[in-house]
Amino acid sequence: MRHLLDTRTLDREQALRILDVAEDMADTQSREVKKLPTLLGKTVVNLFFEDSTRTRISFEAAAKRLSADVINFAAKGSSVSKGESLKDTAQTLQAMGADAVVVRHSASGAPRTLATSGWISAGVVNAGDGTHEHPTQALLDAFTIRKRRYGKDSRGRNLSGLRVVIVGDVLHSRVARSNVWLLSLLGAEVTLVTPPTLVPQNVSQWPVQVLYDLDAALAEGPDAVMMLRIQAERMHHAYFPTEREYSRLWGLDAVRAATLPDDSIVMHPGPMNRGLEISSEAADSPRSTVLEQVTNGVSVRMAVLYLLLAGERNDEEGK
């Protein structure tokens, strides 16, 4: 694997390989000594043009547990804020000897530009670009669903036959887009539930069913319900009347959660707007996987960095 830019262009074998390697990484994280020497001598740069403490720390933890050196590069307060271009920044990282660059950017396509421009020889991981994709979030979500469903027997398994409902601000959600492509690739049936004003224009080309009634979607007994954050910072118009109205129609509260099958799980990529898209009762219930997703995120990102920087080399050595 040279780069990880999206889930739409992954094939099933690649996706399952990442999830299976993540299982191996998760096993190492239950040991007393969690650190592995795998990427000793490698340098991973977290290049974040947007704030995201959760994702950055997760990638940093993943790289450090593989013994890589980590450089955190925040655009705010740096030369980028003084007008330096993406090309100039990339060439600076190249001069530093970066082996992998984890990129978060407000512009859709920025990680692909970095990966295909020839400005840098490092492997590139998309940590979220505009309203395009967030592939490692989708991978950790799939990993979480698979682990909850199959436990220790999950290696090699896909998600065939499972039903996943994704609820909320689909229009602005790169998490939703990455999940739609990945979960469908792995065999899951995906339903989007959203206000009509928050439906993307090209959704007819997605492998999903679209509903506007949350109660109707939950009545079908989904295996997983993924609540999306309302991204108020990206909303420059009124997409719904009031927060109270949104919560009443599309929020997951204790009453709605109680209608789900016993083995159904509740997910959220975080950070949560408690009381808006999800209530505290639903977020903190035993069926919630919110904290598991954070834990699994480190294992999945360890797997991605391993496959980017060591996987191919180790495969060749094993032949």
Task: Tell me what you see in this structure.
40% of the residues lie in helices and 14% in strands. It has 319 residues and is α/β, with parallel strands linked by helices. Strands 7-6-5-8-9 form a five-stranded parallel beta sheet. Helix 2 runs parallel beside helix 11. The protein is globular. The model has no long low-confidence stretch (mean pLDDT 91).
List the topology elements.
Blueprint: H1 12-28, E1 43-48, H2 53-65, E2 69-74, H3 86-96, E3 100-105, H4 110-116, E4 123-129, H5 135-150, E5 163-167, H6 174-185, E6 189-193, E7 209-211, H7 214-219, E8 224-227, H8 243-250, H9 254-258, E9 265-267, H10 280-283, H11 290-318
Parallel strand pairs: 1-2, 1-3, 3-4, 5-6, 5-8, 6-7, 8-9
Summarize the structure.
The chain is α/β, with parallel strands linked by helices. It is built from 11 helices and 9 strands. The chain has 2 domains: 12-133 and 294-313, 3-Layer(aba) Sandwich (Rossmann fold); 135-289, 3-Layer(aba) Sandwich (Rossmann fold), CATH 3.40.50.1370.
Residue-averaged pLDDT: 91
Helix content: 40-55%
Structural domain count: 2
The overall strand count is 9
Taking Cα atoms only, what radius of gyration do you get, to the nearest Å?
Answer: 19 Å
Q: If helices are DSSP runs of H or I spanning 4 or more residues, what is the number of helices?
A: 11
User: What is the rounded distance between the termini?
Assistant: 17 Å
CATH class of the largest domain: Alpha Beta
Biggest sheet, open or closed, and with what strands and sense? 5 strands, parallel
Q: Specify the CATH homologous superfamily of the largest domain.
A: Aspartate/ornithine carbamoyltransferase
CATH architecture of the largest domain: 3-Layer(aba) Sandwich
The residue ranges in which pLDDT falls below 50 over 5 or more consecutive positions are none
Question: What oligomeric assembly is this protein in?
Answer: single chain
Order of helices and strands: HEHEHEHEHEHEEHEHHEHH
Rough outline = globular
Strand content: 5-15%
Broad structural category: alpha/beta
Please name the CATH topology of the largest domain.
Rossmann fold
